[in-house]
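INTERNAL AUDIT FORM
Audit reference: QA-55
Scope: verify that the stored structure record matches its stored sequence.
Auditor: D.O.
Record contents follow.
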Amino acid sequence: MNRTARLYALVEELRAAAPRSLTVAVLAARLEVSTRTVQRDLQALMETGVPVRTTPGRGGGWSIDPAMTLPPIHFTPEEASVLATALAGADGSNAARTAFQKIAAVLNGPATTAAAGLAARIVALPSRTDARVRAAVHQALDTNTVLRLTYTDASGRASDRVVEPAGLLTTDGRWYLIAWCRTRQAGRSFRLDRITAAMTTSEHAQSHDLSELLRGSAAAGATRPEMLDPLNAATAPSRPQGD
């Protein structure tokens, strides 16, 4: 996690706990950094005007002005239940935790009751995908760079691969990295929970069409989830208006 992301995560941790305070030790454990780093970051936040403050003595710690809230967002009970289910299946990264905190902070009334009622009936087994592997895969996709990985196939055989990521496929609760494998000189799918190690590189990857790599496979008919359409629309370049 870079410093900018860490500062943002610190604010989210404090805002979620407000008006209670959190100790430096607790914050350091949640962000997986040293207490010295947290102290330095908190001081930097104060100097930039973020309303964080410290309470000395027993039971003290750091807190933030509870007036720092998100813009009003209203969820229906059905929407809140869907979000609770989706978050239950997310990885345990800092990004997933802060996303949950943001959503939980704006739930109220019937939405809170519905989400809490469903959440009380959800249990989860620990993810078999290493958070560092997932982060490396996401970074390689975001930056379109070559990825080096160690993969164990269904027979238990491990091999080192050099791949050019094209996209992610999800089905039946599992995630797959779809990529051009330089080692095999062909398109391949890699189950994320079978990737035992992954390392990003600075080498630019060739662009590969996701649909083309899936052609002829059992996932040839895969389509982009419609629920992601609003994100695609938000990032699409605007068309010039005619005269």
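Auditor finding: record pair retrieved intact. DSSP finds nine helices and seven strands in the chain.
Action required: none
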